[in-house]
Write a structure and sequence with these properties.
205 residues; globular; 0% strand; mainly alpha
Length: 205
C-alpha cells in the first residue's frame, strides 16, 4: 500500500508541475511571476492577462488533476481495493506539483483550481457542493481568497457526509484543506487587517 501511495503521489506531482498560467504567460511574452501577486494561479493570471487567460488557466489546472486521477483509477490501479484512496493521494500529488514545481524554484500556485478538479474527478457531488459554496461566498464578499478557503473546508465535510467511516480518506482531505490555508496565510493576514484586495478593485502595484 505504501508503494502504491508513493507511486500515486509521484504521478500526481508530475501532472501538477504543468503550470498553465506560467506557460500561457510565456506564450504571450511575459513571466506571470513578475506581475500582480507573483502567483502563477488562476486569480493572478486573470487580473494580469484578462478573463480569457484566467479561464484557460483554471481549466488547465483543474483538468490536470482530473486526468491524473482518471489515469490512476482506470489504467494503473483499476482493480485495487484501495482505488478510491489512491485516487485521493494522486490528487494531493497534483496539488503538491502545482504548489511546488521544481523547475520554478518550488514557487507555484495555491492549489484551489487543482483541488476543485480533484473534487470533480473524485465525486461530482463534491464539485457541485464546493462550486456552490465558492461562488456564493465570492459573490457575497468579492474575496476570491475567502471563497477558496470555503471550498477547501467543504472538501473534508463532503468526505464526512458522503463517505462516512472512511477515516483515511477524511484525513487526506483534511491535508488538502490544511494546505489551502497554509498557501493562503498571507491572504488571511490581510483579511484580518482589512487590506485584502476585493476582486472588483484593481490591485495596487
Amino acid at each position: 500500500m505504501i508503494i502504491e501511495i508513493i507511486v500515486c503521489l509521484v504521478i500526481g506531482y508530475i501532472f501538477g508541475c504543468f503550470q498553465t498560467g506560467y506557460f500561457y504567460g510565456r506564450l504571450h511574452g511575459i513571466d506571470i511571476r513578475n506581475y500582480g501577486s507573483g502567483n502563477v494561479g488562476t486569480t493572478n493570471t486573470l487580473r494580469t492577462l484578462g478573463k480569457k487567460a484566467g479561464y484557460i488557466t483554471y481549466l488547465g489546472d483543474a483538468l490536470k488533476a482530473v486526468f491524473a486521477i482518471l489515469l490512476v483509477r482506470y489504467l494503473i490501479y483499476p482493480a485495487s481495493p484501495d482505488n478510491l484512496l489512491l485516487t485521493m493521494y494522486t490528487g494531493f500529488g497534483v496539488v503538491l506539483g502545482h504548489n511546488y514545481p521544481f523547475y520554478l524554484k518550488f514557487k507555484g500556485g495555491k492549489g484551489i483550481a487543482v483541488t476543485s478538479g480533484v473534487m470533480l474527478a473524485f465525486d461530482i457531488r463534491f464539485a457541485i457542493v464546493g462550486g456552490i459554496g465558492f461562488f456564493l461566498v465570492f459573490f457575497l464578499t468579492r474575496y476570491v481568497s475567502v471563497g477558496s478557503l470555503v471550498l477547501a473546508v467543504i472538501f473534508p465535510v463532503c468526505v464526512l457526509i458522503f463517505y462516512p467511516g472512511q477515516w483515511h480518506l477524511f484525513i487526506v482531505s483534511l491535508v488538502f484543506c490544511a494546505m489551502a490555508f497554509w498557501r493562503h496565510r498571507a491572504n488571511i493576514v490581510r483579511l484580518c487587517k482589512g487590506t485584502e484586495n476585493r476582486f472588483d478593485k484593481k490591485k495596487k502595484e
